[in-house]
Please model this.
Amino acid sequence: MSNRQNCDSGSLSPLELYERVTTQGDKVRSLKAAEAPKDEIDTAVKLLLSLKLMYKATTGQDYKAGSPPTDFTPINNAPAITEDDDFVDPWTVQTSSAKGVDYDKLIVRFGSSKIDKELISRIERVTGQKPHHFLRRGIFFSHRDMNQILDAYENKKPFYLYTGRGPSSEALHVGHLIPFIFTKWLQEVFDIPLVIQLTDDEKYLWKDLTVEKAYEYAIENAKDIIACGFDINKTFIFSDLDYLGMSPGFYKNIVKIQKHVTFNQVKGIFGFTDSDCIGKISFPAIQAAPSFSSTFPQIFKGKEDIQCLIPCAIDQDPYFRMTRDVAPRLGYPKPALLHSVFFPALQGAQTKMSASDPNSSIFLTDTPKQIKTKINKHAFSGGKDTIEEHRKYGGNCDVDVSYMYLTFFLEDDDKLEQLKQAYTSGALLTGELKKALIETLQPLIAAHQERRKQVTNEMQALAQALIEEDHGE
Amino acid sequence: MSNRQNCDSGSLSPLELYERVTTQGDKVRSLKAAEAPKDEIDTAVKLLLSLKLMYKATTGQDYKAGSPPTDFTPINNAPAITEDDDFVDPWTVQTSSAKGVDYDKLIVRFGSSKIDKELISRIERVTGQKPHHFLRRGIFFSHRDMNQILDAYENKKPFYLYTGRGPSSEALHVGHLIPFIFTKWLQEVFDIPLVIQLTDDEKYLWKDLTVEKAYEYAIENAKDIIACGFDINKTFIFSDLDYLGMSPGFYKNIVKIQKHVTFNQVKGIFGFTDSDCIGKISFPAIQAAPSFSSTFPQIFKGKEDIQCLIPCAIDQDPYFRMTRDVAPRLGYPKPALLHSVFFPALQGAQTKMSASDPNSSIFLTDTPKQIKTKINKHAFSGGKDTIEEHRKYGGNCDVDVSYMYLTFFLEDDDKLEQLKQAYTSGALLTGELKKALIETLQPLIAAHQERRKQVTNEMVKQFMTPRKLAFEF
Model:
């Protein structure tokens, strides 16, 4: 679908919506014909359904293949697609709203707590550091037990960080950087150990991969993670396939967790069914186990009571709700959490950026040209159809993906605010906003690529080895 | 229930049966009141149901609490309880027949092959050794792919032995020795490596134990196993809880197997349900994995294609049917199997000897006096009610537990045959048969206790250290 110069319609025209539904329908069909992995098909199907919902909401008509919209009555004051249409689980994120998932409703639904101004001020006080812009801008927006963590820190009680990644074949995209950027900041500000889990066993179980290939991807992804700049003396990165077979603590905690979680529970939380393999069914315990310090006896000297803080995207929360439920029964402290919003796909915040959909993503391996092209061609715009309209009414930052990306990556608060005001007033055109983003992203990604080149196999092997953590734990 | 001198009735009198049902019913009630582990209750319930069946078959009446049998019409030519009543899974063995499980029907049901004279002769030819009396007497009675193993041996292709034990708190009983006695003989005759798995993780998952206690039991049980006389240079004994966390091969094979087995399958094979914990559901893969040589890279130098021979009791077969089904999909050779009959409980071959039922068992820790008392008091007799009847009609070796035990432990074929003929003819009385058994068992158990005393913690450690054995691959 070509974009007219200047901008896409803030809300797509019926015809454009119609074309998008058609395109997505074709995509689903071709994925099925190619016997693509089930989750790819599921993601595509969910997007298709969402687009159809949008089509109906906009035109008042049901989408009919071969029947492009002609006369239609725009529905005024139609109720926004309710938040009940937000679908969030660890494998799929889906909403009909162009603004993205309603995070306030998600907090209520998940039972977490909003990261409010008060908490952000407290973090500033306790750490003596200006809070990261992710906190200030609501990119990390929800938490569990963060106040408890701050209490511990004030009382000089230790805690540690835990985050992770499911290593996949595709390169990482810029959305993948978010938890790592924030985790790095947390590590610096609190000066604490960090463990990073590469769930290559999960990928083996869910994807059509050999064990060897899954492990290979883990090593490759580790390089990108290291390129984010973690302190080698304070960070342990591990592959499940590897570390499970060389840790006195990991398997014992896994089997303890597995004893206290039933199939009914994981069915309810993750949607497993009787035809799922027993590996998938028992996997959640493996993502849970690093939440407990006894999983890393070499780092924590066998101590079992050191609390864990987990920065992650909100779709990972189900694993840790389950973990927090089990922890007391094992006599372990519950992990605390910091949740981030999803990184919106290029074509709109209805879905998150996904490595399996190249047009939705800007990859860490993209060239400056590719970055420019993708943003110009595919980044969903909140601007108006014509320059005149745009000057008059201004652009909508709530749905504009380029603006959203700037909130993630433009560190300067003032510059960001300027762009927001200028765009909203219409003074700044879409093309100019996109230019600002391109000029922010190109150096960022180029710098990452440079650091990644420097991550030699040697350095990576060091990071992967069991290193003695000398924090006096 | 006291035994009248000389013998119990070969078939119990209706009143005795009635009393047994009552006693068993009381036992079930007290187990439930004490909130005993589910499997203990299940075993007791199954025995109760079986006794009720026997009662009905003998008296023609349904058992009614508080209504002992008075007048009854014995059913002549009543059909024997059909083999459909034989219940066999890894946790429960149950039959109504006093002769024990019908093993020929079990072979048909399980799809294994009978160890016939031809195979036994071939074993003799190929090894140049007289076949163990367990083979000659049908104690190891069934197999899968044993001819393939003999082919490999003839072609100087390597293979290895794998057997195991679920370590429990109770001491081992004489029945537990059977697979180990036979495995030791196989190791000597074929001169091959042996791995022995102690499923302490299984016990943790199924029993009310801590991980530490389960591991403790594994170490204790290892001492009894070592006391059977395995060659320290050819044997690796491992605890799952330990070895999983120190093997580059174990977890990888587990996750491969777990990917290829669905919940539906383990539901069908093992009877798991939705309310079972995810640890139980995924456990079968852990018992399967040692069937593949890549689980022991330090022994087999990373070779993946070395076939495995598994001597075990027939109730373990479900684990290995599942394993044999998965093996080709992983590109691994299917394990071969040698199945043994169950070791009958003291009170009769309807159930197997069980450590959780002290009166059914002779323990390796029993004193000579305890051995004598248990056999005299509790061993079910195939003799007649009175000496006169016994002299006239003789005893029934098919149901006599003391005779059955002699087939296991009296190595001298001629002596055994003498006893059989004398007892069957009535020349030998029950008490004398029992005396022969007592005099066989007492030295056997005493010798075991002596060897166990000689097992040091150092030896245990050595047996349990992952290491290269005295074989080149």
